[in-house]
Amino acid sequence: MKIYTQRLDTIAASDTFETLELTFDTRQKSRFRAQTKNAIDIGADLPRTGILRSGAYIATTEGDILRIDAKAETLMQVTAQTDFDLLKAAYHLGNRHVPLMLTPSALYFEPDHVLAEMVEGLGLAVTQVEHPFEPESGAYAQHAHEHRLSPIKSLHHHGH
Question: Coiled-coil intervals in this record (predicted)?
Fold first, then answer.
């Protein structure tokens, strides 16, 4: 079994790689096992530097490269008659601190009948779909590795 231990920022145009589709839950973990489309077992023991976004690359110490893609999974899709209604739904779901994927025409979240009923109560359509899940990372996630949290930022962390 190949063990992938490195995250790559970029790869050379000449580099070859295999592709591995993973769910959001797996992409949040630094250690996992998976199987490629060619039924090859792989393991990952990566630095804990955040989730693997779709399109990320990981490598073994021998130079084998995998591109990670978001795998389609069961999600709730929220659509609305107006942009403002979709914005309202995003606001209310955001207040629940759930991972939320935003697109220009729909919102996506992991199945939760309570949240689905809340959104339907706002007058929006909620449908169960199969779709890759790439939720927003949060306002501070991109710079968390560069800066210590200031007292103001730490006040916004609710421990959820």
Answer: none
